[in-house]
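Write out structure tokens for Reverse transcriptase domain-containing protein.
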Amino acid sequence: MSDQLVAISFTNKGGFRFLLGAVYGHNDRRRRETLWQDIIRLSSLAMHRHLPLLIMGDFNATLYRGEKLGGRPVPDQILSDFQSCLLQSGLRDLERIGHIWTWHNKAVVSRVACQLDRALGNSDWFRLFPSSVAEGLPAGTSDHSPILVRFVESPSWRARPFRYDNSWFLSAGYEETVAGGLGQVAVGTAQFCMVHRLKKTKRAIRDWVRALSRTSLQEKEAELRDLQSELQGDMMSGEMAAREKKLAAEVNTLRLQQEISAAQRAKCSWLKDGDRCTKFFYDVIRARQHRNRIQRLIGRDGRLVTDQVAIQEEAVRFYSELYHQTDYPSVFPQLITKTLITEYGNSLLMAPIRMAEVEAIVMQADASKAPGPDGFSSGFYKRHWGILKVQVLEAVQEFFDTGKLLKELNHTFLTLVPKKEGATSLADFRPIACCNYLYKIITHLMCRRMEDAMQGLVSRNQAAFIKGRSIAEHSLLAHELIREFHKPGGMKACVKLDLRKAYDTVNRDFLCHLMGAMGFSETWVDRVRECITSPTFSVLIHGIPYGFFGSSRGLRQGDPLSPYLFTLVMEYFTCLMDIAVHRKRIVPIYSRVSPVVSHLIYADDLLVLLRPSMRGMRELAAVMEEFGQLSGLRLNRDKSKVYFSNSCTLKEERALELGVEKGDLPVKYLGVPLSVNYAKDRDCQSLVDFAQRRVEGWQAAGLSFGGRIELVRSVISAIALFLLQSIMVPLATIRKIEGICAKFIWHGGIHAISWEQLCRPRKEGGVGLRSLVSVREAAGIKLAWRFLQGDSLWSAWMTSRYLRGRNFWVCEIDNNYSVSFKHILRNRPVLRTAMRRRMREGGETDLWLDPWISGQSLLEILGPQRDGVAYRGLTCKHIIRGGVWRPEEYRFTAPLGEEIRRVRITPTALSDVWIWAPPGRSEGAGEFRFSSCYDLVRPHFDDMEEYDFVWGKGLARKMQLSAYKLVLGRLLTRDRLLRFGVSVPDPKCVLCETDNESIGHLFFQCHVAWSIWAEQSRRHLGGVGRERDFREILKWIGDCRGKEQSWARRARLRLAASVWHVWRERNRRIYEGLSTPLVGILHNIESDVLVMSP
């Protein structure tokens, strides 16, 4: 108990016990530091005693920036203190419902609201009470809302649908069961036969699973422990040793099964090289179930529904009505489109199906993806492709030949994912379609065939789902268009349009009519129509399907084909806008030198830029109305906003003409703050919050050191994608994110290894994480590379806006240039070293100014005094004759002529291009590789001498990382803890209890540890040297030249295993008060080595 935290232990009559912590945080940040320490101690107590823990109350602090509205931003240190507390305690929020803004200042103007009150639980709490929620009640006359924790009744049990488990293959009899089911004889169409065999296989698997032994992992582990205890009394018994080996193999198989099954359900595909993290997987599963659980809904009549049966009925009613078309037109005017698909393009779409196409789709699929109603995921198809491939090919070819889908094949489960915390309206859920994988093979194949056609059909105003187009360039073009928004030059307006239930309301008849107008063959359109009109639906509530209904409108989110079809629908909006601009009904914002950009589209994100005359606003409203009537995509006026330049007058009246509200910049577009100014650190806090939410403390509690590294690697990868959208993310924001990641890796404790060290490649002494600072630099270089390709609307706009006929390589940086273009120009020196010119006809390469000779230009080689400077403006075509260099015609020196002749010419009618060819890499196809770009800009260090010892083949991940810390001298032994200022009760080594503990003593000078290594060497390596230091031992292993290479690998493996087991034994004695006899440690090492050895 303290002045800020009161802990209470509750025990009911049945003996069930849990801990409750009541919090009232101090207003002063420094005084709250004791609260954070008390919470960490209480959670540690609960964890060691395996007790559920609930902590709730007024913390007087927020966890993320988004938890405060109005007033000054929350200081970073306040956020960091609370986040560090949760990181070390492993607590996480209960789902919040009701009044989530639990405090406000009661002011009429200058209002401030915060989420200061919350309820937190540990993993044991969520395991026992997965459906508990924290409900914010009305505040009444107080400035705080009370928090009530509700234990929502779990839905009544009902059998869940069949789902294939990727771990089943490890059990005896599985392969025979599946082979028998898939080998069933069926008569009918190829699709019918395929579905029939899957049904038989499902039934056979269910029977086989029921007949499996129900021996649990815990029972097998207990049996193994008992046998090993018996073995201690008779270590020479061959019979017991054989039984132990058999039991150990069974335990390992059960552990692996549990791991694979949990990983599949958790969908943590990023965790590939970490330790076994089953507890973490189950925590992730529970967190997702908790987040997606629907416990209350606002019904059609506006009343709150909490009864589970009523919730199920409401969901089925809502989605059956949503996908039902009522007043859509079925007769359409003649549609005007800009481009048409060619006859040759249509022939490619309907070309015969090849086995290689289908096999590539299946083999590249993520095996952890959720299955459709038949229960068979892509993992099943991948595992049994040898049996299935002919049957699958026949079913796919049948669809392309007949244009008919078996109804059962296109049944769909709708999984409801909340768009925001505490969602109570079904409009706030995103319906994700879980389609049968056989159907998805068909639509994946259709998508791959449509890819090339889409590039010619879809204007450059759209960037989503089109091969070769980038969200980064789209986002940056939006920034460029907004940059001079408030500068003189007339009134300007930017309209951000939101479409209501975009995918779900598409008029399918219009889509098919539009595809016909675009030139798609009637045969192909019929195939598309069959895919989008034949599905039936059931809604999943808590994993159980309810309802069965058809549909007459909409595209399914989750069907691979839907994004491509939606892009085609949005292309008609471009056609309408272009007509309005051409007829001068809408006047876009443009300059005399830049391409006209009236609008940008990325999926369902629309941005329109125009001169906001009253007529122009009315015409835009008319375009949206016509587009909505035909396509079914209606404007969501509540979420759409118009932003005006400072020079604009009568803003409210102009917004009224359009029918949307007036807003103020900045506004978020494609996840990036869109503003007239350079993005500041405060504008990018959503990115910091994203990183913080991805590495919450409860995740650290369930992950090993290796698992935490892999999670951070996935976070960095996700943020890298964001950075590739905008190079304007401030360095201060990057440093904050790196700090969050580093703190997570070390679980909020001592950072034994610096972030900079961890971000080195393994060969150079790191663990292979990427530095976000270097990622930021590499992203800028990629942007410059994309600019030079010149094949996007963004690069064309930037070229005409800034270069204006000047050569990119000699253009000087002007203060009036945008931040992004300045950054591109500053990257020119790096680009010179990483690119080469692929010379074709030479007509696109400036003879004097482009760096086409080993990264240098002729002007740089010869200098400005050369008479040849007068020939500027000439291209390389002037010194190529018949595909051969003729440098002598321009009186170049003989050495320079030889240098020019070394530049290879590829005779073709295509234009010259820049190819990616960084130093030390073969040119290959010349395609850009971000990995090589990152390698170009990151710091480089000497190779680690002990690389083979640390990262040796076959070595378990946990042993690799302990060896890694040993090599760097960063294991937290007692002498190092004392140097960090941590109090240690006794500095002596717990193994020998004679000398003080240090890294050097613990592993090789301590007689206990030395006995472990010496015994390993004597038994398995043919003797032992006198070396008492691991580097000397490694040198001894390397000096045994007469031995085979495999001997050296085994020796390093045994050394690493010995190090790990010594460190594990040390920790067990200190933290658990347990010890293992020397013979037991040797036995454990031998068991691990047997598993790791080939």
